[in-house]
Amino acid sequence: MGSLDLPSASSFKGGSETFLQDVLESILKTYLRKNPIAKTIWELVKSVDNEKISYDHFFFRTFKVDGYGIDSLSSFFMDYGYKVGGRLDFPKKKVHVLWLSPPDVNVVDNGYGIGNGPLPRLVIAELLVDELSRESQV
To answer: Per its Swiss-Prot or TrEMBL entry, what cofactor is needed (predicted)?
Structure first.
C-alpha cells in the first residue's frame, strides 16, 4: 500500500476494546513519564475535574522512512476497528495527515477516561523525509 492509500475500514468484529484501551493507556503513561511538564498539567486538570477526563483525540507524529509512518501506525489501529475519517496534505510543509475515527464500543453511562470512556479519535501526521532537502535528511 502506498502512503495514504489505505482501505477505509477493517475486518474488526468488536470485542477488542479492552486491548485498545490498554494500548492507549500505555501510550499515555509513557508520554507522561517522558514529559514532566505535560504530566504536571495533566495531574492538575485531573485533580480539578474529579478525575473525569475523556480524550477527544491522540496525535502521533511519524516519519515516512523505511516502511514506517502513516501506513504502519494506521494499519495497526484499523485492524482493531478504527476507520479513516479524513486526510489532509500540506505539500509546502511536506506533511500528510490522516485521522481515524474509533470503532463503536459500549461505553458505560457517564463513562470517562481511557478505561471507561469512549475511545479517542487518532490523528497521524507523516513527514515526507525523502522530499526534504539533503541537508535536512542527514
So the answer is: Fe(2+)
Taking the C-alpha atoms of residue 99 and residue 39, their distance in angstroms, rounded to an integer, is: 25
User: What are the beta bridge partners of residue 59?
Assistant: 123
Query: pLDDT tens, position by position, for the chain (138 residues)?
Result: 344 454 444 444 455 677 888 888 899 899 999 999 999 988 888 788 666 777 888 999 999 888 888 988 999 899 888 999 999 999 999 999 999 998 876 666 666 666 667 788 999 999 998 888 888 877
C-beta separation of 7 from 76 below 8 A: no
Please state, in angstroms and rounded to a whole number, the distance separating the CA atoms of residues 87 and 96. 8
Angle, vertex CA 43, rays to CA 42 and CA 45, nearest 5: 65
Q: Please tell me the pTM assigned to this model.
A: 0.77
**Angle 22-23-29 (CA atoms, 0-180°, nearest 5)?**
85
Q: Which fold has domain 17-137?
A: 2,3-Dihydroxybiphenyl 1,2-Dioxygenase; domain 1 (3.10.180)
